[in-house]
Write a structure and sequence with these properties.
The protein has 2 helices and 12 strands; from the N terminus they run βββββββαβββββα. It is mainly beta. A 4-stranded antiparallel beta sheet has the order 1-2-3-4, with no helix packed on it. Strands 5-6-7-8 form a 4-stranded antiparallel beta sheet, with no helix packed on it. Strands 9-10-11-12 form a 4-stranded antiparallel beta sheet. The longest helix has 5 residues.
Length: 188
Amino acid sequence: MFTELDERFRVSIERTRSNKYLLITSQSQISTEVYYLAANNINSSENTIESIKPRQQNIEYSVEHYYDYYKKQDTNTECFYVLINSEQKPNFELYKTNFNLNSDSISAKSAKQTWELLIPHSIGTTLESFECFADYAILFTKINGLNYLNIVDKYNFNQIKTINIAKILNQEVYELSPGHNEMYNNPE
């Protein structure tokens, strides 16, 4: 199905939280390439592995899949969210690839040209991770060395609720990282 020929890269495979796609990630210390494959029929000859963004030196990225859980038949609501950096923007940016993943009329190449910037690079803020759920997304950020949890309710990026973890923990030193959660339609 997939072979990584460059021994500097390690390969991992996972199913998206939405259970609709398999993601194959090929990653080195400084570069990433993520491929996607529809999970519903992986043996079909029509089901091909597509790259989200071709590999480039010093570009790292991660991918999350979103679809409207309540409109299961409406594939127009599907998209990938991509957290990506570069040498000029080391603290990452968040993009949305707003395209119909199941449509034969829109190729992956044209989809790459429709990326929408949601959260631009900021010198003082590092975007650490982004996770999609049916009703909201979670964005972990680091500002001046402190961790923040950001809730994007109903995917409204104009009203992000930011929670200062340091104030809640009342600690000067702590470490925070997201836990593993497989439930896409998780109300909490």
